[in-house]
Amino acid sequence: MEQPLRRVLFVDIDGVLHRGDSYAVGGRIVSSAPGRIELFEYVPVIDGLLRRYPDVDVVLSSDWAFRFGIDHTRNTLPHSQLRTRISGATYQGCENELFWPRMSRGAQVLDYAKRHSLDRWLAIDDRKDGFESYRDRLIHCQTEVGLGDPSVVALFRLRLRERFGEPST
Q1: Concatenated DSSP letters for 100-165?
Q2: Quick one: DSSP state of residue 3?
Q3: Rounded distance, CA 27 to CA 30, Å?
Q4: Bridge-partner residues for 120, per DSSP?
Q5: If the chain, 169 residues long, is cut into consecutive pieces of 10 residues, what is the mean pLDDT of each piece?
Q6: pTM over cut 0.85
Q7: Which of 64, 103, 154, 168 is buried deepest, with most CB atoms within 10 A?
């Protein structure tokens, strides 16, 4: 059984940490966004927001973790606080991992939260399916903007304070 006071942020990658989606080409992962969009361009934004919340764990709620594995996904991220905070992924321990990709994103997150007895959690994602009863725990990004939207960053800051308390100094 998990610690009930554990603080968790569920993080999606595509449409959050960078604009647009991504896809695999050969042995590389490339952006689907027009132009030369840098993957993980908003990692410094999330690092800055989480800096004052050192005890928040990150659980990947991204298809990346399921498709490429947690270690590969973590190692693909640039060196950052985000990278060192990753403690797992939502599909881990799911009763039937083959069914996991067919679940709504909210159902994936809620399943993990229930299995780990989490009460203090937030999710940042460009998908909102399955979060209908938990809108106050979702920071919703537009896929083509991600964390490049100042209003989403402001909401993120507010939700961190609401769920996890005043930040440390």
Answers
A1: GGGS-HHHHHHHHHHHTT--EEEEEES--TT-GGGGGGEEE--TTTGGG-HHHHHHHHHHHHHHH-
A2: -
A3: 10
A4: 7
A5: 78 94 70 71 96 96 90 90 95 84 94 94 97 97 95 98 88
A6: yes
A7: 64
